[in-house]
Amino acid sequence: MDNLFIETDFGTIRYLENRGEGDIPMLFIHGFMGVADSWREVISSTGSHSLAVDVVGHGKSSFIDTEHPYTVEYWSNSINQLIESKNLEKVNVCGYSMGGRLSVAFASQYPGSINKLILESSSLGIHDYDQREQRLIEDLDRCNQIESNLEKFVDIWESLPMFENQEIRNKIGFQEQRKHRLSHDSLQLSESLKLFSQGAMKSYIDEFSGFDFPIHLINGSEDVKYMDISDKMSTQNKNVTIHRVDSGHNVHLERPNIFIDIIKDILNSN
Fold it and tell me: What are phi and psi of 71, to 5 degrees?
């Protein structure tokens, strides 16, 4: 699996590439505090041509200037630059949690580049303005915590109820995830959260309703909040298929074999 970098208008983007089978490659986008390596097991097991990026501010992907007023459109443009550099016409995009929202943002800006969209435990953002403002306040406080003491913040984050069974179900994967989380640059990670917070990003309900490609929503049955969200999303677009797994929020970590089978089935479907 190649470890590569591309310089974009947004910053340096690090990505993994597996030159496997398939005319239309998979593009994997991790969640908050993840890295491209979060997808290694999935990529290796599917055997498909795949790309996985470090979201800017995570891992070895970095902002050119943390003082610049970037927008989510910069992110979409940087991914488009990566796709164009590979001379790809279309990709299958799979995004987890925050990465799912970024996948939707990219699909909204470049719908012609999407073959299939796969969203794991994700949402379309917060529609209510007051709730969005409150979430931004909360996430800005998290940014201060990250910059003050990253290890303490990781401890707090990992104690959230939606992650409670991860270590029990996949101890090695959980330990690897923690190692990646602690390896981040605190300032870069903080800037990423400021930009990609649900409080900073708009709601993509209208754009999502107009998507005319297959959409697959993968959720853990224990993750009640995001199951409800996916049920509502399924009413907003007739192209949605829902997949439910006995899992918490991070299905591909907690139930990797089941998740891999779902991805294979999606890739083989019409």
Answer: -125, 170
Four-way CATH pick for 2-126+202-268: 2.60.120.10, 3.40.50.2000, 3.40.50.1820, 3.40.50.300: 3.40.50.1820
pLDDT at 11: 87
Q: CB within 8 A of 206, min separation 6: which ones?
A: none
Q: 174 vs 76, 165, 167, 170, 210, CA distance in Å?
A: 29, 10, 5, 6, 37
Q: Is 228:254 a contact under the CB 8 Å cutoff?
A: no
Helix (H) or strand (E) segment spanning residue 260: helix 256-268
Instruction: Write out the E strands in 99-177.
Output: 114-120
Is residue 6 exposed (0-12), middle (13-18) or buried (19+ Cβ within 10 Å)? middle
Q: Which residues are registered as beta bridge partners of 119?
A: 95, 217
- The 10s digit of each residue's pLDDT in 141-175 is 999 999 999 999 999 999 999 999 999 999 999 99
- According to DSSP, the β-strands at 48-53 and 62-63 are unpaired
Please report, for the chain, the start and end positions of each structural domain, with discontinuous segments joined by +. 2-126+202-268
Query: Does the predicted model carry a pTM greater than 0.90?
Result: yes
| pLDDT digit string, tens, across residues 40-95 | 999 999 999 999 999 999 999 999 888 888 899 999 999 999 999 999 999 999 99
Secondary structure (3-state) at 259:
helix
Question: For 138-245, where are the E strands, in sequence order?
Answer: 215-220, 240-245
- Which 8-state DSSP code applies to residue 43? H
Q: Could you tell me the CA-to-CA distances from 95 to 46, 106, 146, 244 in Å, in that order?
A: 16, 11, 23, 16
Task: Quote the distance between the C-alpha of residue 58 and its chain's center.
Answer: 12
